[in-house]
Write a structure and sequence with these properties.
heterodimer, A: 14-stranded antiparallel barrel, 18 strands, about 5% helix, B: mainly beta, 10-stranded antiparallel beta sheet, elongated
Chain lengths: ~400, ~425
């Protein structure tokens, strides 16, 4: 579990992206630039600024879903200090398809969505690792079709309304992790929240072709600052404790299309902490939690309401089978959290249990690639409070490629 | 081995992206989570003062000579007269006959001993209380089939020559016949002299004048021809039939309708023009429930439907339409310096075909709801227009379809209770912001 050997030995003779990571980077970037065709979809996104999306890889997704204080390769964007684990140039991208069963007031439906929660490039420079990352923050994708009718004069006209919200808020970070002591790493990140929200409202009149279809569209562009600071303390490779604080400024939503009015939102301060330890030479335990002060945004959502959120998660990782230089770890974990924006006056919660595995090609120190998969089964909301429930299967696949 | 990693990495990434990029449809669950009234569709009926700047009615848009039918009428509706005029082709240069052996031969020197003018009658579009006595005359003055009117035998640009007798100066009577309602043709015997005169292409007066003697009748004739009796020079004891088709037909009528109302139809055709006000600045009440005094601009709403409401008015019996009036509205593509009457018309203003209005709607005392013409496209452009150098058409023409195809016309109220109104079905969206 050490991280020092390869970085110290290998000369920095190639530019980042000059080898294997380049095509992955380009392909993942292309995916991130095409949000419309892969809009995430959760009806809980219809409230406030949406549903939080954690910028995690598949391994962190299983081991608690927070991504702080994890021993081993952890490319998540939550704690910039954990970027110091990038012993060599690396690029990571994650993709997250999901399937949801939605139920509300006796009606149910199945919907699907795909997100790209993380892409990150890291570049070691001596004791320091710098990196850039682009990850999810809030998902605002949802779409609803509603049947109804309007009374015109004495006639009732059947209507079919489709309200679609596409987009979300992502975070772009420039990160730096510095090994202060052999057991202590500090990291800092600066970045911006960026994104776009397009909301389309469409009405059709299925029974009366003479009535013209109605469509209106509004769009906002998001921009806001963020800064993060984190620490990681390692206990001789046997245990790790990490913590991070992320400050977020005011998010500006600038109307870009239609009658979209400019808005401002105070984003929350986020504090995350976690720890992991080897229970045995091949069994790792991870626990983590996060608090986010989402009540700061409540002023902008007087009708909806916003509350501070707590999340807790944990998991176990077993070294698994090993063939030659390839290993196949197995993981199991859970995550529980509250969502920031109320629905029907109640604060929704989300829980999930996860099962995961991966493949490590090469030794831990000189690995060439890591493919991780997480499969989560969980639920959001409940009938008694929010009225809306979503049971989901969520698959996260992340691929990490390492330079020489 | 670097290139292998490039290929493998790229392929895996591309596969992941391709697998992820599936379209996601909306769900039918959760609609009640949306606030009520996000999208509202409501109806507004505008009075003429809100959208009309003026109107006018103009006639003479079609020529009877181009309409493909003729009309004969005598005191129809008490006042309406119409005379049909026809000019026949030159005589055939040869005729076919059978010789004594039964072989078919051509004769280039036939003698035309007489003939029959056969007029087909559109029984469905003809009106008469009983048998109608018709007269066929030779025309006594030179005339122009393309421009002849009730008063003028020639009425082209810069040249106007009047008939000595309005309605066409009748020459010698050729024959009389009686048309009985329900029969589809009527025939007139024609003597050899008349045939010879009608065959003289140097004579600008040649032609047939057909008129009715029986009052109260109006007959529509889509076809007329001259059948000739010919005797071949090689076999003068044999009579064969040849045909001299009409090469020009028209009809002249009197009087023209006076337009106290908005008129559409007839032949020569009438059109009503409605000049609209600016609609982009028009303010309308917000859909209920709304704050008192709340208004919205028409341009801020989507016009789901715009229907021009017209109230049919009774038409004088003389001009009562022979069939349903197929009415349509088209935008007038006005250009500086071009008078309204010569301005071209655009596509149908509502994007759909004409609206058929039963002719019974033009009977006195029928009342009934207004008829509606779709004008959604026209009104939408007018409500959206903001560019002064590219103004949207603001004048709408109401005309029959096909124009000139209908004898008689439709009339619509232009003022008062039945004045044109504009029914708008509007859709607006509210509260689509971030909540």
């Amino acid at each position: 579990m050490t991280r020092r050997g390869p970085r110290a030995r290998r000369p920095q003779r190639r530019l980042p992206g000059g080898g294997g990571p380049l095509p992955l980077l380009l392909a993942a970037a292309a995916a991130l630039l095409a949000p419309r065709s892969a809009a995430g979809q959760s009806l809980f996104s219809a409230r406030g600024l949406g549903v939080p999306v954690a910028p995690l890889d598949a391994r962190a997704r299983v081991l608690g879903g927070i991504g702080v204080g994890l021993l081993g390769w952890n490319p998540s964007l939550v704690n910039p200090a954990e970027g110091a684990d990038a012993a060599r140039r690396s690029v990571v991208a994650a993709i997250q398809p999901s399937r949801r069963s939605v139920e509300f007031q006796g009606d149910s439906d199945d919907i699907g969505a795909t997100r790209f929660p993380l892409i990150r490039v890291a570049y070691p420079m001596g004791r320091m690792v710098v990196g850039v990352g682009y990850g999810g923050f809030l998902d605002q994708g949802w779409a609803v079709v509603q049947q109804g009718h309007e009374v015109l004069d004495d006639d009732s006209v059947r209507t079919e309304d489709r309200v679609e919200s596409t987009g979300g808020i992502a975070q772009a970070q420039l990160t730096m992790a510095l090994r202060v002591l052999s057991s202590l790493t500090a990291g800092a990140a600066v970045g911006v929240y960026t994104g776009r929200l397009e909301r389309t409202v469409e009405r059709r009149f299925p029974d009366d072709p003479s009535l013209q279809r109605f469509e209106t569209r509004v769009a906002w562009n998001y921009f806001g600052p963020l800064a993060a600071f984190g620490l990681v303390w390692d206990a001789g490779g046997l245990a790790r404790v990490g913590a991070s604080v992320t400050w977020s400024g005011t998010l500006e939503a600038e109307g870009d299309e239609g009658e979209a009015a400019d808005r401002r939102f105070d984003l929350p301060l986020q504090v995350a902490a976690g720890a992991s330890a080897w229970l045995s030479p091949r069994l790792l335990l991870a626990l983590s939690g996060r608090w986010a002060g989402w009540s700061s945004a409540a002023a902008a959502f007087e009708e909806t309401g916003a509350d501070d959120t707590w999340e807790l998660g944990g998991g176990l990782e077993w070294g698994g089978a090993q063939t030659g230089e390839r290993s196949f770890p197995l993981r199991v974990g859970f995550h529980y959290g509250r969502l920031p924006f109320r629905l029907q006056g109640a604060t929704p919660t989300e829980w999930s249990v996860a099962l995961g595995t991966g493949m490590r090609a090469g030794s831990e120190d000189a690995g060439r690639a890591a493919l991780d998969v997480a499969l989560e089964r969980g639920s959001r909301g409940d009938r008694a409070t929010t009225g809306l429930t979503e049971d989901f299967w969520r698959l996260t696949i992340s691929l990490s490629l390492f330079g020489r | 081995m670097g290139w292998i990693r490039v290929v493998v990495g790229g392929a895996v990434a591309a596969a992941l992206v391709a697998a992820a990029c599936g379209d996601e449809g909306p769900t039918g669950v959760g609609g009640p989570l949306l606030p009520g009234g996000v999208v509202r569709t409501f109806q507004v009926v505008l009075g003429p003062e809100a959208f009309l700047a003026g109107d006018t009615t103009l006639g003479g848009f079609t020529r009877p000579a181009e309409s493909g039918y003729m009309v004969v009428a005598e005191d129809f509706g008490g006042t309406f007269d119409a005379h049909a005029l026809a000019r026949f082709d030159r005589l055939p240069r040869s005729v076919s006959y059978r010789d004594t052996a039964g072989a078919t031969r051509q004769d280039t020197l036939p003698r035309f001993t007489g003939g029959v003018v056969v007029m087909r009658v559109d029984t469905a579009r003809s009106a008469a209380a009983g048998p109608v006595r018709l007269r066929l005359h030779r025309i006594a003055e030179p005339w122009d089939p393309a421009t002849a009117t009730w008063t003028a035998r020639v009425d082209s640009a810069g040249r106007r020559l009047l008939w000595a007798r309005p309605g066409g100066t009748a020459g010698a009577l050729v024959d009389t016949a009686t048309w009985t309602p329900g029969t589809d043709s009527v025939s007139f015997r024609v003597d050899s002299l008349t045939i010879a005169l009608w065959a003289d292409t140097a004579d600008a007066a040649r032609g047939a004048l057909l008129l009715a003697e029986t009052p109260g009748a109006r007959i529509r004739a889509p076809f007329i021809t001259l059948r000739l009796d010919a005797r071949p020079s090689a076999r003068p004891d044999t009579v064969v039939t040849a045909t001299s088709p009409a090469i020009a037909t028209t009809f002249v009528s009197d009087p023209a309708p006076a337009p106290p109302a908005l008129l559409a139809g007839g032949n020569p055709a009438w059109r009503a023009y409605l000049r609209f006000r600016r609609l982009d600045t028009l303010r309308l009440p917000c859909p209920a429930p709304a704050d008192p005094g709340c208004t919205l601009r028409l341009r801020d709403a989507t016009i789901s439907l715009a229907m021009l409401q017209l109230q049919p008015e009774p038409v004088a019996p003389a001009f009562f339409p022979e069939d349903s009036l197929r009415l349509e509205a088209r935008a007038v593509l006005a250009a500086p310096g071009i008078p309204l009457v010569r301005s071209p018309l655009g596509d149908p203003a509502g994007g759909t075909g004409p609206v058929a209005i039963p002719r019974a709607r033009f009977l006195p005392g029928t009342g009934g709801p207004p008829v509606e013409l779709p004008v959604t496209g026209f009104v939408t452009r007018l409500a959206r227009d903001t560019l002064p150098d590219q103004p949207a058409p603001s004048v709408l023409a109401l005309l029959s379809s096909p124009e000139g195809g209908l004898m008689g016309l439709g009339a619509f109220a232009r003022a008062g209770v039945g004045a044109p109104r504009l029914r708008l079905v509007l859709t607006v969206a509210t509260d689509v912001g971030i909540r």
